[in-house]
Hints:
This protein is mainly alpha-helical. It is rod-shaped, with a radius of gyration of 32 Å. The chain is built from two helices and no strands. The chain has a domain at about 35-65.
Amino acid sequence: MARYKKKLFFFLIIKIFHRDILITPKRISYAREKEKDLYESLIAITNSKQNEIQKLILQAVNDIQETLTDQACSLEISGI
Length: 80
């Protein structure tokens, strides 16, 4: 009899948890909407950071452009 009660107890626990995790079309729709929002947010952040990185690289190149030109002019290249 104790074994039966134990099985019944586990069955009831599983039934309760199963009810809590049922996936309904409304929940799927909500999850898809949130996933789409997160993806769009990630793309926006990535794009904004990419522009920031490009600006930093361009600024660095502009800052050292004259120095690089001077160094390139002072190089002695054989065969020319």
